[in-house]
From TrEMBL:
This is Large ribosomal subunit protein bL33m. Belongs to the bacterial ribosomal protein bL33 family. The keyword Endoplasmic reticulum does not apply. GO terms for molecular function: structural constituent of ribosome. It is found in: Mitochondrion. One of its GO terms (biological process) is translation. One of its GO terms (cellular component) is ribonucleoprotein complex. InterPro entries: Mitoribosomal_protein_bL33, Ribosomal_bL33, Ribosomal_bL33_sf, Ribosomal_zn-bd.
Length: 58
């Protein structure tokens, strides 16, 4: 019997580089490159760089 197939996409957390603790969650392809995006951080009221980290369980 074959094992369960892995999903083609994974859920990742984009964490603010402004060290405010603010984050977005998004999906990306499992085989794709790591995500980095400039998005709005409401805690500093500015657009800052967000970098990917693995989504952790609560």
């Amino acid at each position: 019997m074959a094992g369960k197939a892995k999903a083609r996409t994974i859920i990742v957390r984009l964490i603010s580089t402004a060290q405010t603790g603010f984050f977005y969650t998004t999906q990306r392809p499992r085989q794709g490159p790591k995500l980095a995006a400039v998005k709005y951080d409401p805690k500093v009221k500015a657009r800052v760089l967000f970098v990917e980290s693995k989504k952790t369980k609560k």
